[in-house]
Amino acid sequence: MSDQHDNSTYAAAGVDLEAGDRAVELMKSKVARASRPEVVGGLGGFAGLFALDTAKYTKPLLASSTDGVGTKIAIARALDKHDTIGQDLVAMVVDDIIVCGAEPLFLQDYIACGKVVPEKIAAIVGGIAEGCRLAGTALVGGETAEHPGLMDPEEYDVAATAVGVVEADKVLGPERVKAGDTLIAMGSSGVHSNGYSLVRKVIADAGLDLSGTPEGLDRTLGEVLLEPTKIYTLESLALFAEVDVHAMCHVTGGGIPGNLPRVLPAGTTATVDRSTWSLPPVFGLLGAAGHIERAELERAFNVGVGMIAAVAASDADRAIDVLRAQGIDAWACGAVSAATGEPKATMVSDYL
Questions:
Q1: Which GO terms of type biological process are on file (predicted)?
Q2: 75, 298, 313, 351: which sits with the fewest CB atoms below 10 Å from its CB?
Q3: What is the DSSP string of 63-123?
């Protein structure tokens, strides 16, 4: 008679430790490119160590942010393309840190999956490492957790936390913004990583084909939707070094109307002029295919603007020049003015 405990192993329960070890080996060379001189030790320890040179700062404040990518992962899974989703993850975290004026120093990731497929995990982490490289941020560690029975074998989700530093007197925010300030838009790279529940509903309801190339797009719909989120970190640091920036707004869920008021003081309002840029074709496609009203489109998506900076009107031209020199599509998109009540942002005119 066979022993009922013969198969009571971790592998039989669905957790493959050897696959996890192989995934680590595959990602090591990619992670090594996402480092900084302050990193102590390397990949493989129980914690990431980072030496903060406090002599560089008078009164340093640490800034932290945690985020994920959301249901954009469903598009990656549908196309079986997983090497860009990591850049989305990094962008959603470091660009939340940069808007308070802080430099993102290091990041740790977390990947939960139904089954560790080493090549897939390595592709995801490779994207994270590339995002960290683009942000000048060190990838000091992470965790991959295999959850058989809780998640289907092909399922995964990602999250990350980053930590940055800023001088106390350099923190950006509403208290610096004044009526008369000019708003500088920074172009997005596409849909970024917000609104994908609506994107997927439009695709399903309209019967759109991810492998097809709809009129107006220069690539397949799937490729356009998987375009990684733009990372603005190094370019923003260059801007801070040249221009007195009052506030920065990361345009994520809620769009411009939902996010811009978060960096405005009471007694002000922001007017954003749509006629200063063209609506990118992917948003026009989603709006038409999903019969989405313009106000809802602008609440769900970034509509072509990934970041907004508020600067004195006298600094606007200089700010645009600095950003363009860094490869960022930038332009004056509106202004802050005095008003009564709580701050708000109003979209006016029509797109080009």
A1: 'de novo' IMP biosynthetic process; adenine biosynthetic process
A2: 313
A3: EEEEEE-TTHHHHHHHHT--SSHHHHHHHHHHHHHHTTTPEEEEEEEEEEESS--HHHHHH
Give the residue from 231, 17, 192 showing the smallest Cα distance to 107: 231
- Radius of gyration of the CA atoms of the chain, in A: 22
Instruction: Say how far apart CA 210 and CA 79 lie, in whole Å.
Output: 8
pTM: 0.89
Strand bridging mode 268-273 / 344-348:
parallel
The secondary structure of 225-274 as a DSSP string is: HTPPPPP-HHHHHHHHHHS-EEEEEE--TTHHHHHGGGGS-TTEEEEEEG
Instruction: Give the model confidence (pLDDT) of 246-277 as tens digits.
Output: 999 999 999 999 999 999 999 999 999 999 99
**Maximum CA pair distance of the chain?**
87
Tokens standing for residue 206:
């309209």
Tell me which residue of 249, 228, 239 sits closest to 315, measured CA to CA. Answer: 239
Q: What are phi and psi of 288, to 5 degrees?
A: -70, -45
Residue from 83, 81, 109, 84 nearest 94 by CA: 109
CATH number of this structure's domain 17-42+59-167, picked from the four choices 3.30.360.10, 3.30.1330.10, 3.40.50.170, 1.20.120.430: 3.30.1330.10
CA 310 – CA 255 distance, rounded (Å): 17
How many CB atoms are located within 10 Å of the residue 96 CB?
A: 20
Class of domain 174-348 (CATH, top level): alpha beta
- CA 255, CA 303: separation in Å to the nearest integer? 8
